[in-house]
From TrEMBL:
Region of interest called Disordered, as start-end residue ranges on this chain: 1-22
Transmembrane segments annotated in the record for this chain: 168-196
Annotated organism of origin: Oryza meyeriana var. granulata
Name this protein carries in UniProt: Protein-S-isoprenylcysteine O-methyltransferase
Enzyme Commission code(s) on record: 2.1.1.100
Length: 203
């Protein structure tokens, strides 16, 4: 076996070791698959969407029970219909499809945070409307006068005519902005605007 002399060993080229920063950023062997940041963004948005749905509908039911009594509260107070379930299912399908095919679309954190802000603002406006109106606020249109019904002009009703509808519109569209769903955002705006334009002038 040949041995290099000290002078030749010193002159022999050595393999450059990676910089310390590069070693720190390199994947750790045996640490398992690394989760891409895009996947984390989409997952975070999905959890935020689920939390927004649970809080909105749960609080609607609780407030309805508080003002109208549990005996007078039905599943309708959750504001969940077949059309609503279909719309939200389409929104989740769009989010999943885009997260898989166009993951960069879910990386617009500024847009997502604007959506979160819209969700909060819409929620606050909606709940202020419910609390201010009290027993006069119902989830079903009444065509006959009832004793507890009265015209509300104080609180949030001083600044907008239909804060309940406005709050829901902002909240619903905000959920889609939060998910960075371009198709559902436009669809929600058009459908809800058409729905409320027909519902508001209801005789």
């Amino acid at each position: 076996m040949r041995h290099l002399s000290p002078s030749l060993a010193a002159a022999a080229p050595r393999e450059a070791s990676p910089p310390r920063a590069a070693r720190a950023l390199s994947p750790i062997t045996g640490a398992g698959p690394q989760i891409p940041s895009v996947a984390m963004a989409a997952r975070s948005q999905a959890w935020q969407f689920a939390a927004a749905l649970v809080f909105f509908h749960g609080s609607e039911y609780v407030l309805a029970a508080a003002f109208h009594g549990r005996r007078n509260v039905t599943a309708t107070s959750l504001l969940i219909s077949k059309q609503y379930v279909l719309a939200m299912s389409f929104a989740m399908l769009e989010h999943l499809t885009e997260a898989l095919l166009f993951p960069e679309l879910k990386e617009y954190w500024f847009v997502s945070h604007v959506g979160i802000l819209m969700v909060i603002i819409g929620e606050v406006i909606r709940k202020l409307a419910v609390v201010t109106a009290g027993r006069s606020f119902t989830h079903v249109i009444r065509i006959h006068y009832e004793d507890q019904h009265k015209l509300i002009t104080n609180g949030v009703y001083r600044f907008m005519r239909h804060p309940g509808y406005s709050g829901f519109l902002i909240w619903a569209v905000g959920t889609q902005v939060m998910l960075c769903n371009p198709v559902s955002t436009v669809a929600f705006i058009l459908v809800l605007w058409r729905f409320f334009s027909k519902r508001i002038p209801y005789p």
